[in-house]
Amino acid sequence: MGNSLIRFTVYGEAVPWKRPRFNGKTKAVFEKSEVKDFKKRVIEAYNKSGGKFFPKDVPLRVTVYVFMRVPASASEKKQRDLIRNHRPTKRPDNDNLYKGITDAPNKVAYYDDSQIVDTHIYKFWSGCPRVEVEIEDTE
């Protein structure tokens, strides 16, 4: 395949993966609307990037950069300091962020996220919350 690389950006706050809920009365399984909406935004951003489909047996590397909104309660000076000199150590956890981002493009970008063999995720403070994603084949 030859080291294909797709980059795309999802604007707005990242929404971490959350376990689907089960309604005991109706026996229905459902996903929270915020998670559904985020998955749609991920797919839309991927499609807008001209993203292609990576076939089933292609091993992939996925790198995710999560830019989290600086706390509004921080002074302007503190916000600048956070952006320049600090990294977020607060929730959501990296693993839940990553799962929320890589589950969304199943069957759109790749056959299944089990194709991902190399993963990287980075969190940063920012005045412009977004998620930047890179998907590339490792062959």
Write the layout of secondary structure elements.
Blueprint: E1 5-11, E2 21-22, E3 29-30, H1 33-48, E4 60-69, H2 76-85, H3 94-103, E5 116-126, E6 130-137
Parallel strand pairs: 4-5
Antiparallel strand pairs: 1-6, 2-3, 4-6
So what's the CATH class? Alpha Beta
Provide the residue-averaged pLDDT.
89
> Could you say which structural class the secondary elements and strand pairing correspond to?
alpha+beta
What is CATH's topology name? 60s Ribosomal Protein L30, Chain: A
Oligomer: single chain
Radius of gyration from CA coordinates: 17 Å
Which stretches of 5+ consecutive residues score pLDDT under 50? Answer: none
- CATH architectural type: 2-Layer Sandwich
**Total strand count, please?**
6
* Number of structural domains: 1
Helix/strand order, N-terminal first: EEEHEHHEE
What would you note in describing this structure?
By secondary structure, this protein is α+β, with helices and mostly antiparallel strands. It has a single domain, classed as Holliday junction resolvase RusA (60s Ribosomal Protein L30, Chain: A, 2-Layer Sandwich), CATH 3.30.1330.70. It is built from three helices and six strands; from the N terminus they run E-E-E-H-E-H-H-E-E. Strand 2 and strand 3 form a beta hairpin. The longest helix is centred in the N-terminal third of the chain and has 16 residues. The chain is globular and about 50 Å long.
